[in-house]
Amino acid sequence: MTTSCTVCGEPLPGGPETGRPRKFCSDRCRSKAHRDREREAERARERLARRCEIEVAGNRCARGAVFVLAVDGRELKVCPACRELALSFLVGQGAAATAVETRRIATPDRDPAPQPTERGTVLLVEDDDSVAAALGAALRSRGYEVRRTHDGATGLREALERRPDLVLLDLGLPDTDGLVVLRKLRDVSDLPVIITTARGADNDKIRGLDSGADDYLVKPFHIEELLARMRTVLRHRAPRPDGVYDDGVLRVDFALKQVRAAGSDLVLSPREYRLLEFLVRKPGTARPAAAIIAHVGGVAESKRYLAVLVNRVRQKLGAEGLGRGVIVAANGIGYYYRPPGRTIGYSHAANLVN
User: Fold this and answer.
1) Helices (H) and strands (E) in the chain, counts
2) CA distance 272 to 64
3) Cross-strand partners of 30
4) Do the Cβ atoms of 50 and 64 come closer than 8 Å?
5) How many Å apart are CA 89 and CA 274, to the nearest integer?
6) What is the rounded distance in angstroms from the CA atom of residue 100 to the CA atom of residue 200?
7) What are residue 104's DSSP bridge partners?
8) Residue 72 and residue 82: Cα distance in Å, rounded?
C-alpha cells in the first residue's frame, strides 16, 4: 500500500480505510498529476501525428513523416522510404502523377525566415574544415541550404543522388583532383558548378572552364563576389517558368509537370515523367544512359531498370497513337526522343539506332 504522495513524496494523511486508496497528499498534487497526464497524452498524440501514415498488412510504419502528399484535397504524411510507394499507389488508383503535390513538413525548431530552399541547395565539396565552416555559415545566413562533403568521390555521389541547385568545387581534394570529379560529373549531368580554389594561374582557369565549370573563383575571395557569381550562374541556368515542349502531338508543360499526348492527358508516374521530360528537352539528341539514370532515379539504379522504364513510357505513348518509336535507343549511348513524323538528321544515324 502506498504511504507517500506519488507527486511530492510527502506522507499521505490518514483517512478512512474504505473506498479507493489515496495517492496524493493534497488537491494541489492531484491537479498537478492530472496536468502531467494531459501533457504526456498530448506529446503522445504529437508523436503519432508526426509518424508516417503508410500501413502494410495492418502494421503502420514507425518512421517519422517528412513529406506530405496532397491530392484532391486529401493529405497523406509519409517518410522518405515510403514516398515512392505511396506515389505509385496513388497513380495506380487513378490519380494523375502531376496532380499529386509533394511538400516537406516544416519542423518546429527550424527558423522560418528565411527558408533554406528559398534560394536553393548548394553542395560544397571542400576538404578544409575552416573554409567549409566559414562558407557554410555565410551561405546559410543568406537563405541557402548547404550540404558539405570532404572528398571527391563522396561529392560526386551526392551531386548525382541529391541533385543540388549548385556545386561549389575545390580542386585540391584528398582523394582525387577536382577536375577529375568535374569531368565525371559532366559525363552524366549538367548541374551548375563553380570552382573555388587557390589555383590562380591562367592555365588552371582555362582547364577548369574547358572541363565544364560554369565559373572559376580564386581563393581568397569576398563572400559577396561569390554570392553574385552564384546568382548569375543560377539565373542563367534556371529554366523558364512557363517552359513548354510542344511538337503538335506531344505537349509537356515543365512548370506544371503535365503531359498531353494527341490531345489527351497522359498519366505518368514521377519517374516516367522525369524520363520523358529529360528526353524532350533535347529532342533528337541522344542522351547518355548514365545521365538519364542520374536524372530519373540516382546512380543506384541499373540500366536494366532504365530499359523497363523506357518500355513503360513507350507503351503509354503508343496507346495514345504516337507509336513506340518516338523514344529511340542509340546503341552504346542511351536514348533520345524523336518527334512524330521526323527523321534523324544525320546520314550515319542508322548505325546508332537499333
Assistant:
1) 10, 17
2) 27
3) none
4) yes
5) 18
6) 48
7) 67
8) 20
pLDDT digits (tens, 9 = 90+) for 147-186: 999 999 999 988 877 778 899 999 999 999 999 999 988 8
Cell of 177: 583532383
Collapsing DSSP states into helix, strand and coil, what is residue 94?
Answer: coil
> Do the bridges between strand 55-56 and strand 145-149 make them parallel or antiparallel, or are there none, so unpaired?
unpaired
pLDDT for residue 257: 86
Q: C-alpha 127: how far from its chain's center?
A: 24
DSSP 176-234: SBHHHHHHHHHHH----EEEEES---HHHHHHHHHTT-SEEEESS--HHHHHHHHHHHH
Q: How many CA atoms lie within 13 A of 98 on its CB side?
A: 17
pLDDT of 40 higher than 50: yes
CB proximity list for 152: less than 8 A, separation 6 or greater: 125, 173, 175, 176, 177, 178, 180, 181
C-alpha cell at 85: 510507394
Q: Is the separation of the CB atoms in 252 and 259 below 8 Å?
A: yes
pLDDT value of residue 153 = 92
Which whole-number Å values give the CA distances from 195 to 15, 131, 149, in the listed order?
Answer: 80, 14, 15
Query: The sheet that has 145-149: what strands, in order across it?
Result: 145-149, 121-125, 166-169, 193-197, 215-218
Name the helix (H) or strand (E) containing 132: helix 129-141
Please give the distance of CA 49 from its chain centroid, rounded to a whole number: 23
* pLDDT for res 118: 47
pTM of the model: 0.46
Task: Name the CA radius of gyration of the chain, rounded.
Answer: 28
The packing angle between helices 289-296 and 270-280, to 10°, is 140
